[in-house]
Amino acid sequence: MILLILSISAVMIASYLAGSLPTAYIAGKVLKKIDIRQHGSGNVGATNALRVLGTKIGITVMIIDILKGVFAVMLARMLLQSEWQIVLAGLFAVIGHIFTCFLGFKGGKGVATAAGVCAALFPLNFYAALFVFIIVLILTKYVSLSSILAALILFILQSLRLYLSSDLTIERELTHFVFILIIVSFIIVKHIPNIKRLIQGNENKISFKKK
């Protein structure tokens, strides 16, 4: 039992620290010699990295942030057994991204890292949400709207999976449902300023250009 508790604790700490890695901040400091928190929206996420640091760096930041979520799930699968423990590790990675210990517990909005967790946990649902994200982004150029709608699609799909689950799969599907419910809540709360700007018609659009 003690060994199990130590294993769970180690995985959660590792997942949180991986999620806490402030990729956009590091990229800004190392590659552009700037503090990204003082530019654009001030957010240390992939979207602001795209705006401030340029397309190539921004996409690289986004990929690394996604991989942080994948890493947490894969690490948990190697060292732990229970599905809820694996999901909890993914959640810790997302929490780390949003509340990074390296920047005074002020990080990004968690979308990219949450996407990585979802891609590792339920790839089919993730691909459906990614499709919605890309289509909405192409049509509107609003990353915030694309992120919110993609998160809602994940919630709807997992709700259906839970409803259709059998006695053998209901525990796993319920665990995934709770995770998505928490993630969607995080994303919506973190995007409240964006939602207000969308309603007012003055939300910033993304542009892919070289800096």
How does this structure look, described?
The chain is mainly α. The chain folds into 2 domains: 1-107, no CATH class; 121-211. Helices cover 75% and strands 0% of the residues. The chain is built from 10 helices and no strands. The chain has helices spanning 2-20, 23-32, 46-53, 55-79, 83-98, 111-121, 123-140, 143-164, 170-190, 192-200. The radius of gyration is 17 Å and the shape is globular.
Short structural summary:
With 211 residues, the protein is an all-alpha fold. Helices cover 75% and strands 0% of the residues.
Structural class: mainly alpha
Low-confidence stretches: none
Helix content estimate: over 70%
Mean pLDDT: 95
Tally of helical runs: 10
Structural domains: how many: 2
C-alpha end-to-end distance:
53 Å
User: What is the subunit arrangement here?
Assistant: single chain
Order of helices and strands: HHHHHHHHHH
Rounded Rg: 17 Å
Number of strands: 0
Residues in β-strands, percent:
under 5%
Shape estimate: globular
Main sheet properties: none
Task: Please supply descriptive tags for the structure shown above.
single chain, 211 residues, mainly alpha, 2 domains, 10 helices, 75% helix, globular
